[in-house]
Amino acid sequence: MISAISWIPKGVAKSEPVLADPPSKDEIQQLITTTLTTEDVDEVIDDEEEKEDEVSHALAVAEAIGGGVVVSNTNKYDDIALALKDLDMDNYDDEDDQGVELFSSGIGDLYYPTNDLDPYLKRNTNKDQDEHDDDDDDDSEDLQDMIINPTDSVIVCARNEDDVWVLEDTNSKEMNMFIHHEIIIPAFPLSTAWLDCPLKGGDTGNFIAVGSMEPAIEIWDLDVIDEVQPCVVLGGIVEKKKKGKKKSIKYKDDSHTDSVLGLAWNKEYRNILASASADNKVKIWDVVAGKCNITMEHHTDKARTKLKSFVLIISSVDQTCFPPLLSHVQAVAWNLHAPQVLLSGSFDHTVVLKDGRVPSHSGYKWSVTADVESLAWDPHTEHSFVVSLEDGLVKCFDVRTAKADSTSELSSTFTLHAHDKAVTSVSYNLSAPNVKLWDLSNNQPSCIASKTPKTGAVFSISFSEDNPFLLAIGGSEGKLEVWDTLSEAGISRRYDKYNKNRP
């Protein structure tokens, strides 16, 4: 399944990504140490000891069997013993002394006067040459696919692995989309956020932050291929121990202690990343320093309904693997016009607005009717946002109506019944005002286009900033689909004038 999507702005990715150097022995050892828990190490040791016991037993059986004994109804130890006996490893070094010529027919190496007479040499025919040329063409095409052109759009999809997709020449009608490379991560990914903070020096960078079922947030360099470790890890587990039936976990200082469900990068303060977690906390990180600056616990731990949205998120995963979560912070979003202002939404049926400059302030709170699935600020005004809910509703609120003294019970600016089931993701078109496949003009929502993508249940949608009428869609089938919304006649008639990329 695809649980999250992030568009990468055009022109920021290196045209030819760098191939990562293979890890050193020390790095491999460190990776094993940090990846395996104490329990895992104990299991590996037990497995090795069990294998050693089996081999020792088999050798003893082989010694007892001797020669010329046929064993019927053998068990696995007897099988091993017979195999060892047949190999006759004690006399292996003596084979050269017995007149046997290795790698020959036993009568000496044959000599052929010319290569044409040698049946073991393959002569190069025209067909062989054509096949060789085809292989060269394939190699050339593979190398060409690795090059990212200035007109290409790059999309990162969070699946069982993070995939980096390239959408070629998005200004033309003939768009080609393919997987550029994959990033292998240790846990199921739930959220992503692109950031250009120069974590490796220079003025900018090209990085993706990934939140997963683990409490750590990993940041990967998208310009490096086959990297085995992230360049930055925020929080995470230091140590796991198992004593009998009890497990104890030690976390890094200021780490989340549960799954990271939402991430938001601050475009104005480029070293700042916000995270939302199932531990019911919102954290603000300095990614350059690699530490948490602020931890906020303004959402309650009391859920008002049964867990449903989380099942949607992990529907393609064995649900027995995860403990039931009754409350968590699901989404965070920075205001595009006031970058110190942060929204967060939770399963406690509230949306909270906080100012990062005064984290001790209780903030402003709105009540909603169901679990919060996602949040989005209106990019065309600084005072409006929408929240999508588990009951299929999308509500719009105006922050100017909020009150600090109590939970705001004021009605929403508008409410639309968008879907029959949970609205798992919302995204604004950054170019044309009031368009999100729903026209929100005058706070009177009207549906202007709809689509049933071949992605299964839709978990994530995102409009491109470079090509604002391209909508990336990901869902339970693990397939990425890009919808050119201007191909819809109704949208094209109304909003083609906002298309910056039209010929």
TrEMBL record:
Question: Coiled-coil ranges per the record?
Answer: none
**Entry-linked InterPro entries:** PWP1, WD40/YVTN_repeat-like_dom_sf, WD40_PAC1, WD40_repeat_CS, WD40_repeat_dom_sf, WD40_rpt
Composition bias of kind Basic and acidic residues appears in: 119-130
* Acidic residues compositional bias, start-end: 131-144
Q: Which UniProt keywords apply?
A: Phosphoprotein, Repeat, WD repeat
Q: Give GO cellular component annotations, separated by semicolons.
A: nucleus
Location of the region described as Disordered in the Swiss-Prot/TrEMBL record: 118-144
Q: Where are the WD repeats?
A: 253-295
One Pfam short name: WD40
Instruction: Enumerate the SMART domains for this protein.
Output: WD40 (SM00320)
Biological process according to GO: rRNA processing
Q: What is this protein called?
A: Anaphase-promoting complex subunit 4 WD40 domain-containing protein
